[in-house]
Amino acid sequence: MSKNFVPILLLTFITITVWVAFQIFKIATSSTIPAPTQNQLERLDPTLDKNVLEDLEKSLK
Amino acid sequence: MPLVKQLAKQTIQLDAGDPVKKSYFGVLATLILLIVLIILIYPAVKHVTKLNKEISDARVTKATLETKLANLKRAKANLEEVGGNLSILDLAIPIGSDLTPYLQKIEVLAKKSKLKIIAVQFTNIPLSKPEAVESLKSQKLDYSVTVEGSFPNFRKFLAYLENFIRTSDVTIVDLAKNQDGDLQETVDVTSYYLGIKFAPTTTTPTKEDLEAIGE
């Protein structure tokens, strides 16, 4: 009787271990930053090419 | 406590009994214990992992926001510096497609180059001016113009287009003679504007929609 329980318990143990591992992996890899904050985090390039403005001014003349 | 006593009693009984049975009981007990342990520990591990993730994400957010704040300050300084030239920028890349005045200007340029416009083709271009200023991004305006006229005049037209304030990229130029022997030039142009990304509808209109359009 006890012998029959060993593979069942072993498989249950493996299943639970793998499930827990996947859950922890999922939590560790998914971002917790909310979508509005992610929008605010979008990169902003402050450099301004003044030569382009000069070229545009020239094309107006 | 009675359960512990019972287990101890059983263990004593097994000690005296079959050694194989004893070893199986040990394995079973270990497995059950491990399963119970994992189930008990799981919420705590989950919570700690979540907290660690939130802390690391918060650090990233803080660093990125600080960088953005510094960039915004630089951008503000740049804006104050070129404040007078903003109208020129608006002419080069307007808000909204501004298609009608743009096509009128193309018509003027063609007339100035003594060319006759045969056809203008464009698709999926929003004609209305966008209101949501905060989410505007650079969008492409693709169109093609077919003109009729001599090659030197066509070159003039291209030169005018190149010097035109509104940014335009000529992607394809196609020259062909029509049945009457006149030269026809087709130019594929990409211009740019600030707008919201336009998503064309793919659904087919229903009977009610067609009736509504008919009315």
Report a brief summary of the structure.
Chain A has three helices and no strands. By secondary structure, chain A is mainly alpha-helical.
Question: What can you see in these coordinates?
Answer:
- By secondary structure, chain A is mainly alpha-helical.
- Chain A has a domain at 1-31.
- In chain A, 74% of the residues lie in helices and 0% in strands.
- Chain A is built from three helices and no strands.
- Chain B has two domains: 1-81; 93-195, Ribosomal protein S6/Translation elongation factor EF1B (Alpha-Beta Plaits).
- Chain B has helices at residues 2-16, 19-81, 86-92, 99-112, 151-163, 207-214, and strands at 116-122, 137-148, 168-177, 183-195.
- In chain B, strands 1-2-4-3 form a four-stranded antiparallel β-sheet.
- Chain A binds chain B through residues 2-3, 5-6, 9-10, 12-13, 16-17, 20, 23-24, 27-28, 30-33, 37, 40-41, 43-48, 50, 53, 56-57, 59-60, and chain B through 21, 24-25, 27-28, 31-32, 34-35, 38-39, 42, 45-46, 49-50, 52-54, 57, 60-61, 64-65, 68, 71-75, 78, 81-82, 85, 88-89, 91-92, 163-165.
Alpha-carbon Rg of chain A, integer: 30 Å
Whole-number count of domains of chain B: 2
| Distance between the amino and carboxyl termini of chain B | 85 Å
Mean pLDDT score of chain B: 83
Q: What ranges of chain B have pLDDT less than 50 throughout 5 or more consecutive residues?
A: none
The beta-strand count of chain A equals 0
What's the arrangement of strands in the largest beta sheet of chain B?
A: 1-2-4-3
Share of helical residues of chain B: 55-70%
Q: How many extended strands of chain B?
A: 4
CATH architecture of the largest domain in chain B: 2-Layer Sandwich
Radius of gyration of chain B: 37 Å
Write the layout of secondary structure elements.
The complex is a heterodimer of chains A (about 60) and B (about 220).
Chain A lengths: L1 H28 L5 H6 L9 H11 L1
Chain B lengths: L1 H15 L2 H63 L4 H7 L6 H14 L3 E7 L14 E12 L2 H13 L4 E10 L5 E13 L11 H8 L1
Antiparallel strand pairs in B: 1-2, 2-4, 3-4
